Amino acid sequence: DRSDAWMYLGVSLTSAGTGLVLPVIAYLAASASPQKLGVVMGGILGLAAYYVLPRNRKRAIAHLTPVFAEKGDAWIKRTARRTFIHLGKSLLEVMLITPRRLSRIVEFRGFENLRNATEQGRGVIYVTGHLGNWELMGAAVAARLPLSVVATPIEPKPVNDMIVGLRAGMGVRTILRSRPGASRELIRIFKENRVLGILIDQDTEVESAFVDFMGRPAWTPTAAAQMAFKFNAPVVFGYIRRENNNKHAITIKGPLNLIRTGDETKDIVANTALLTKMIEDCIVQQPEQWVWMHRRWRRQP
Fold it and tell me: Whole-model pTM?
């Protein structure tokens, strides 16, 4: 799974052999629908995906089971189903978003923490995970401060291009790993005192380390901690949560006090574990808003 992208439903359907049908249907539905109706349609789309994508459904259930074994099979299956519904809603929300709608459905809690970090003048590392509608969070932050995000290119290319285009339309620059100029663009972010969003809750082909996640070792990107030390940049942690009325609350904490013992190699791993624990705590509170179909524990030490 090349899964540093948000549109899991489209990517999963593509891998299931039905091409770009889901992204196209979602785009057409979003184009013709007002916000509230679009969210309802997105939920229906996600529910349909739960039943037509058995591999992803089984994987989500398999990942939920050891973490929430005490909840029972019925709760686990219901949570897996709600995960798909949430992702379907998220897909159409992003396609339908406008600045006016964004201000109506998103609320910040602790934005002053991000503002204080930018006042240090060294750029800011904004750490998060695939929690809630993280693309909507990017749009909300970018509406207030210049924001770039680091992502891994995904296949097929049309899906990748659509995601990058959607982000650009929301004011979010995407830096694609391994693409020419990516390193120079990262350096410019800190020189220009921009915000850099990094999601560190997935097993991808980047420099990583094993840290504990939900009681098991998980291969976790270390880029956030590495860049914090390299550029002496402040780090904040932010996440977005869908609330009962399909509005969203963004919480931002920091600047964080990182672990600094003088052994940078060990400190990078320790801080990656610290940030991962913050993501884990958020997931446990609302597990249906995380991407359980991702193969988070596919590598083991």
Answer: 0.89
